[in-house]
Amino acid sequence: MINLAKIDMKQTTYTGIAASPGIAIGEVRLLDRRRISVQEHEIDATQVEEEIRIFLEAVDRSREQLEKVQEGLVRQSKTEHFYIIDTQLLILNDKMLIDSTTELIRTELINAAGALKRVLHRFVTVFEQIEDEYLRERGSDVELVGERIIRNISGMEQSQVGELERRSVIVAHDLSPADTCQLDAEHVVAFVTDLGGRTSHTAILARSMEIPAVVGLEKITRQVPDNTPVIVDGNSGVLVCNPDKETLKKYLEFKRRYEFYKKQLRSYCELPAVTADGKLISMQANIEFQIEVDIALNNGAQGIGLLRTEFMYMARSKPPAEEEQFQSYKKAAEQFSPYPVTIRTLDIGGDKFVSDICLDDEANPAMGMRSIRLSLWEKNLFHIQLRAILRASAFGNVRLMFPMISGLAEVRSCKKIVAQVMEELVAEGVNFDRNIEVGIMVETPSAVFVADILASEVDFFSIGTNDLIQYCLAVDRGNEHVAYLYEPFHPAILRALKHIADSADAAGIELCVCGEMAAEPMFSIVLVALGYTQLSMSSQGISRVKKLIRQWNTAHSDELLDSLMEQKTAADVLRVLKLKLAQYLPQADPDLDY
Question: Most buried of the four, 218, 330, 341, 397, by CB within 10 Å?
Answer without folding.
Answer: 341
